């Protein structure tokens, strides 16, 4: 069966479900997870950052079905789901501090509806810190923060 190249597609799920060519680098993702705690991954523009973030998100969501037939499907045994806070700063252009504040506030509101809020958390940073703490307490798992 002919496979198409995933030109412009940055979603791991879409690539896996859409019969696109995919060069399996999931063993490296597994190695990252098994060998470290915190990572800062920097790559040049158009070098696969968004697809890597999407792959990490699927992995930490425990989406085993997306990894069938790939190295990760054979390596991972537990498929634990973690709370994920995905912060996408590429979603729009921020011309003013207010536009950035509004976007961050909207993201925090969404996470607060899921994990709760406290009246004492009045700044963006306190709210974010509280969300991380409550997500970890609620799920009993470390929180994964993905930033693009």
Blueprint (SSEs and pairs):
Blueprint: H1 12-17, H2 26-35, H3 49-60, H4 71-75, E1 84-87, H5 97-115, H6 124-139, E2 144-147
Parallel strand pairs: 1-2
Which consecutive residue ranges, at least 5 long each, have pLDDT under 50?
none
Q: How many structural units, i.e. domains?
A: 2
Beta-strand proportion: 5-15%
Q: In angstroms, what separates the terminal alpha carbons?
A: 34 Å
Radius of gyration: 17 Å
Q: Helix proportion of residues, in percent? A: 40-55%
Placed side by side, the strands forming the largest sheet appear as 1-2
Question: What characterizes the major β-sheet?
Answer: 2 strands, parallel
- How would you classify the helix and strand content by structural class? mainly alpha
Observed structural traits:
mainly alpha; 148 residues; single chain; 2 domains; 6 helices
What does it look like?
Helix content is 46%, strand content 5%. It is mainly α and 148 residues long. It has two domains: 12-75, no CATH class; 84-147, no CATH class. Helix 5 runs parallel beside helix 6 (124-139). The protein is globular, with a radius of gyration of 17 Å. It starts with 11 loop residues before the first helix and ends with a strand.
